[in-house]
Amino acid sequence: MKSGFQSTLVLIGGRMTAFLVGFFTPVVLARVFDQAAFGTYKQIFLIYGTIQGVAQLGMAESLFYFIPTDQARAGRYAFNSAVVLAGAGAASLAALWMGRLHIAGWLRNQAVAPLVPAIGLYLLVMLVTALLEIVMISRRRHVWAAGSYALSDMLRAVLLILAAVVFGDLRWVMAAIVVFGLARLAATLVYLRREFGGEFRPDAGLLRRQLAYALPFELAVLVEVAQANYHSWAVSYHFSAAVFAIYAVGCLQLPFVDFVATPASNVMMVRMAEELRAGRRHLAAFIWRDTTRKLALIFIPIFIFLFISARDIILLLFTSRYAESVPIFMLWCTVILLAVIQTDGLLRVYAQTRFLLLMNVVRLGVVAVLINWAISSFHLLGAVLVTVLGTAVAKVLALERARTLMQVGVGGILPWRSLASTLGVGCAAAVPALLVKRFVALPNLPLLALVGTAYMLSYAALLFWFDLLSADEKRFIADGLRRLLPRAVKASEAEGA
Q1: Cβ contact 55:126 at 8 Å
Q2: Average pLDDT, rounded, for the chain
Q3: pLDDT at 469 (0 to 100)
Q4: Is residue 495's pLDDT more than 50?
Q5: Which residue, of 75, 199, 409, 464, has the fewest CB within 10 Å?
């Protein structure tokens, strides 16, 4: 059986395989379309992202709780979730169709209206397919989940880019995304039927249990989605589609953050639930702290590198037309640091769905109360500022609640020493990278590559120097190096002999 560390890495590998293609989808579209059309594209997916988070009703994510604890009836839980999600998707599609003109009016962009039905159909199929990787992970089929993540993200990116480049029309982009969704739906239904066989059937009694768990959680998600998207809706309301495009580029969604954080949190939840069920509370607390430590090792250096290279990255990816996005991007990158602390997953392990709701209400309140003042005072930067502030406040509240649940003191809720050491090492590693930026004159792409290499090598060397890696992590890195450099290792071993 793979360790939690290995399972997490397998899932991360699957998501990262599609990173390059998926990440460059908005980069290509920003070049194909003008700022107004690209802003319209971002608004369409703002609609999708907002409703998708709400319409899941907590049913997909609830499987992380029910399947590991009741494997014998896992197929029934999955079927119940699929039916509820399909119903929610159909209702969402109908609402979007009837309200498309009103939505376009709210966004002050009439170009949105004819595209809304297509995104509604895509939403319907994607709600059902949300079960695919969740079931795989819950059944400990981590390699399958990794492959599914990779193939799905790559296929979606390829279809979107081809539609944009070949036709240069947002309507064809929407058609491509619907085709992708239908293909993924077919794959999901085939997998679920083969995985569960005759057990893939409804069970009203279990459905009541699922709803009792999921609906309080869904209320928390509803508020979380509102908070997460409130700043984008506010900017879209106050500014034109072209200005919204600048803001959206600054709030660049970096896929690798989700690729790492989501699988790590999912594996953490499954492992913690198993340990708590066995009465090993101390091991559950250890898994939480170790997951946080590992995420910090990855996210802290990513944040620092992106912060010092923000201008070069934005200009390289989106051209000088989006230079105004640079300060927005620099501030937005702080969400990467907050992603180190996966408090939502932690609270869900303890079934603290009601507290999740309260926490997200507070976060939404911070944003709703301050955002108009922030936008009027700091323009586009103000929207990012209050969003980050609201998230930080929520993390603090969640940690305090988790500390009580885990029966640990302030010193035991987080791996404080490791976090501080990693931050110090990450900052120190930036010195060689900044020297390269200061004294080497190269075009953006080779300069970024050189700065990134200098930073990565410095960071890795300092990690080993200060012994900040566990034995498993060192072993994994050593095994990877042996696979990458087999001849060099063999030659070194021969010389040593």
Answers
A1: no
A2: 86
A3: 87
A4: no
A5: 409
What pLDDT, on a 0 to 100 scale, did the predictor assign at position 44?
94
Sequence-distant (≥ 6) Cβ neighbours of residue 75 within 8 angstroms: 192, 195, 196, 197, 198, 199, 200, 201
The answer, yes or no, to whether residue 422 has pLDDT greater than 50, is: yes
Residue indicated by tokens 């990134």: 452
| Residue 491 confidence class, pLDDT cut points 50, 70, 90 | very low
CA distance readout (Å), 329 to 47, 228, 259, 458 = 22, 16, 19, 24
Helix (H, G, I), strand (E, B) or coil at 413: helix
**DSSP, res 34:** -
Token pair in block for residue 12: 């991360």
C-alpha 96/C-alpha 102 separation (Å) is 9
Q: Which residues of 429-467 are buried (b: 16+ CB within 10 A; e: fewer)?
A: bbebbeebbeeeeeeeeebbeebeebbeebbeebbeeee
Task: Report yes or no: 114 and 96 within 8 Å, Cβ to Cβ.
Answer: no
Q: How many CA atoms lie within 13 A of 208 on its CB side?
A: 2
Distance CA 251, CA 228 (A): 12
How does DSSP assign 440-497, residue by residue?
----HHHHHHHHHHHHHHHHHHHHHHTT-S-HHHHHHHHHHHHHHSHHHHHHHHHHH-
Name the pLDDT band for 489 (thresholds 50, 70, 90): very low
Gap between the Cα atoms of 346 and 494, Å rounded = 48
Pairwise CA distance, residues 403 & 285, whole Å: 10
**């009580």: which residue's tokens?**
404
Q: What is the DSSP string of 384-397?
A: HHHHHHHHHHHHHH
Residue 259 sits at φ, ψ, to 5 deg, of -60, -35
The region of weakest confidence among 152-156, 337-341, 452-456 is 152-156
Crossing angle between the packed helical segments 416-439 and 281-308, to the nearest 10 degrees: 20
CA 249 to chain centre: 17
Per-residue model confidence as pLDDT tens digits over 7-59: 555 555 556 665 666 677 888 899 999 999 999 999 999 999 889 888 888 78
Domain residue spans of the chain: 4-414, 421-482
The token pair at 180 is 């992708």
- Could you give the CA distance from residue 267 to residue 263 in angstroms, rounded to a whole number? 6
Contact status, residue 283 vs residue 4, Cβ threshold 8 Å: no
Structure token pair of residue 495:
């010389």
